[in-house]
Amino acid sequence: QKIRAVYDSNPTKFKTLQNILEVEKEMHGSAWPKTGATLALMWLKRGLKFMLVLLQSISDGERDEEHPNLIRVNAMKAYEIALKKYHGWMLQKLFTGSVYALPYKSDLLKALEKGKEVKEEESIEKIHQFLSRVTPILDAIYEMYTKMNAELSYKA
Questions:
Q1: Which residues does 141 contact at the CB level (< 8 Å), separation at least 6?
Q2: Between 72-82 and 36-59, two packed helices, what is the crossing angle to 10 degrees?
Q3: The model's pTM
């Protein structure tokens, strides 16, 4: 909502995400990047990275051989890569416990297909197509944050 609100306040001035970061850097001075749409986008990109790593892990066939329909292995991998380093001890423990509430892989794939019954191979192919389109965009956002020195490493 914060990102959208900033954009809506002046669509010409905030035409791109980079424009938003540049203007907020100038506007907020030393408080930047710990404020506004810059901070919101930072957490959004991290969440998106978590989802992309999760989907990539599933599509790569990574799984618990004893429980192949569970996605705990995939979620833990995604968490380790995308979010864990930004979370304190308590949030790390909460996440580890929360993986037991995740849906089965078959239910997740069905939800991604909007409830339609589709062969797993077809769903995995669609995930591959999605990842091939979205991953470069997310990589570009991460690169932009690095170049602008906007990435924060504090723990939530």
A1: 17, 41, 45
A2: 140
A3: 0.92
